[in-house]
Structure formats: C-alpha cells, structure tokens
Design a protein that fits this description.
194 residues, 11 strands, 3 helices, binds flavin mononucleotide, 11% helix, mainly beta, Pnp Oxidase, Chain A, seven-stranded antiparallel beta sheet
Length: 194
C-alpha cells in the first residue's frame, strides 16, 4: 500500500457527534461536539473540547457541569442543527422539538429523546490552542430502559447510534465482533461424536 504524507491535522474517525447540554441556571443550551471520548475508567472520566468563542463555553465553565447525550441516527438532523446555530440567538430545544428532562446529579437538563446520557462535572480546564478541553468526572449515566435486557444488561446496539467521519454522518451498522473475540477459545462440543 503506498501512502502520501500530509502535515499533522485533526483527522480521526469515526467520532461520536454528541449533543452536549449545558445551562447557566436560567437558559439551557445544546452544542454538538465531536471532540470527545473516554479518558479513564476508574474514576470514570471524559472530556469535551470546546472553542472559547462558543456560547456554551461560558455556560460550561461557570456551571462546571454538562451532559453528553448520545445521538441516535433519527436525531442526526437535530445534532447538525445544534452544531450550526448558536444558543445566543436561538432556543435549540424549541427549534429541534427536543424535550428537556431533569438530570439526577447536575443542573443542566438531559435530552429525553437520546437513549443514553452521561452527567458530567468538570474537574480541569486545559487550554490547548483553538479549543479548551473540559476534563470531567462522569457522575451518572442515564439509560433508556428500552436498551436493557431482562438480565439488566445494556444492549447499546439497539440505540442505532450515529457516527461522524470526516464531515459526514453515518449510522452504526453490522456487528463484526465482540470485545475479546479474537482470543476467545472455542467451546469444545463433547457431544459431537455421540
Ligand atoms: C458534527 C459537529 C461536531 C462539532 N464538534 C465541535 C467540537 O468538538 N468542539 C466545538 O467547539 N465545536 C464543535 N462543533 C461546532 C459547534 O457545535 C457550533 O459552533 C455550535 O453552533 C455552537 O453552539 P453554541 O454557540 O450555542 O455554543 C461541531 C459541529 C458539528 C456539526
């Protein structure tokens, strides 16, 4: 395979186009974020990188809280809208017809239509250049009951989540493996020759 080498750039995929909710106590807002991920397991920590020019930036900085709402494919148009228009001019909940629901640990609302949300409390703000990284503890996870099996196990594949890759949106599709399946030993079938 022959490769061309470009100068360093912010190019990774797929990324989750999440809808981050935040509040200043009076007004609530939604900002779409792709620069996000998990950075630690115990304690559970995440980050979002936000340009200081965003209306949401001060809301998150001053409140020290935000929620990451995972975007299912049917809501991708809303996610795109929340990533184009600013909350300083429009009420994105109203424009997108999204429903606010109370979080358990933070003041910012969650988006009822999103199947899973992470309630986050900011621990550090790291200026990186164009963006500042809000490093945060995940203080609660809100899961739609429809994603839980009888055994209480989370079936995230049922959520039909959207992905963002180099400016385009996709819906997660075919399952191609499980965690650890590459090293899993096959079960011996003792009844095979009986
Ligand atoms: C798919 C997508 C991903 C985005 N990711 C980020 C991001 O990671 N960080 C950021 O600061 N802005 C990001 N944006 C841009 C903001 O969402 C956009 O500027 C938004 O209008 C800001 O809203 P606000 O002014 O109400 O805070 C993204 C936009 C889209 C459509």
């Amino acid at each position: 395979m022959s490769k061309v080498v470009w100068k360093g750039g912010a190019l990774s995929a797929p990324l989750p186009p999440v809808m981050v909710t935040c509040s200043d106590g009076e007004k609530d807002n939604i900002i779409t974020i792709a620069w996000t991920g998990i950075v630690n397991t115990v304690p559970p920590k995440t980050y979002i990188s936000v340009r200081p020019s965003r209306h949401s930036y001060d809301m998150i900085k001053n409140s020290g809280e935000f929620a990451i709402n995972l975007t299912p494919a049917p809501l991708i148009k809303s996610a795109d809208y929340c990533g184009i228009y600013t909350g300083s001019k429009v009420d994105k909940f109203e424009k997108c017809g999204l429903t606010k629901t109370a979080a358990s640990q933070i003041g910012a609302p969650l988006i009822e239509e999103c199947p899973l949300a992470l309630e986050c409390r900011v621990t550090d703000i790291i200026p990186l250049g164009s963006h500042h990284m809000f490093l945060a503890d995940i203080v609660a996870v809100d899961v739609d009951e429809s994603l839980l099996g009888g055994d209480g196990k989370l079936h995230l594949e049922k959520a039909g989540l959207a992905a963002f890759a180099h400016g385009e949106y996709f819906e997660l599709g075919k399952k191609i493996g499980n965690f650890g399946f590459s090293v899993k030993k096959k079960k011996k079938n003792y009844n095979k020759n009986k």
